[in-house]
Amino acid sequence: MQTIDDHLSDFFEKTTIPFIYFPQNNVQSKKQLAIYISMLNDNTVLLSTAWTFSFPAALAGLSYKQVEYIAKHAPTVYKKQLVETIQTSYKIKEALEISKNLDESTDNNAQHQQRVKNVIQYIKDNRNAFEF
Fold this sequence. Notes:
Layout: H1 4-16, H2 27-39, H3 56-61, H4 64-73, H5 76-86, H6 89-105, H7 112-125, H8 127-130
């Protein structure tokens, strides 16, 4: 039998990061997560757990503005997770593939790949802000 705390914990997790519960084993679900992350306000992106930032699809959805907000306002564990993610070559490669797929699937001249490259470069250039 679950306690009230168990139910609250389940509810909190499902409402703060709903697309994480979709399998991340196909391009469509990865694109969904990237789009979902990109639509979040700067402060809303912090409602998810730090674990969210371990997903390449989450990295593919982050904006430069969101990453600046994370650098200034997020708990250290969030920042460390982002740094770990960009230090993992297969995650960067996958994030760039997701963003390329987003570029190809949009009618306008979206620059998702360039945005992801800018986000990665920002984190690298401002590494000190992500270590504290």
